[in-house]
Amino acid sequence: MKDEQRLLIALGLSVLFLFAWQAMFPPPSPAPGNGQSPASAEPATATTRSIAESEPVAQVAAPSTTPPAVAPVTTALPASGTLPVLTIAGDRFEAEFHGDTVAHWRLLGYRVDLEPGAPLVDLCEREPDPCLRIGFAGLGPPATAEAIDGQPALRLVWPVGSGELFARVHAQSLSRAKVTFGSRGVPDGTRFEPVVEMAHHYAPDFSRYVFTGLRLRRGGEIESIRGNDLEAEHRWEGSFDWVMWDDKYFARAILPDDASAELQIRVRNLPDSGDDKRGRAWLTISAAPQVLRAGHEGLFEFTVFGGAKELDQLRRIGREMRSSVDFGWTAFIARPMLALMHLFHRVTGNYGWAIILLTILIKMALYPLTAKSYRSMRAMSKLKPKMEEIQKKYKEDPQRLQQEMMNLYRTEKVNPLGGCLPMLLQIPIFFALYNVLLVSIELRHAPFLLWVHDLAAPDTLATLALFGHAIPVRILPLIMGVTMFLQQKMTPTTVDPAQQKIFMLMPVMFTVLFYGFPSGLVLYWLTNNVMTIAQQWLIARQAAD
Question: What domains lie within the chain, and their CATH numbers?
Answer without folding.
Answer: 3-24+333-544 (no CATH), 78-326 (2.70.98.90)
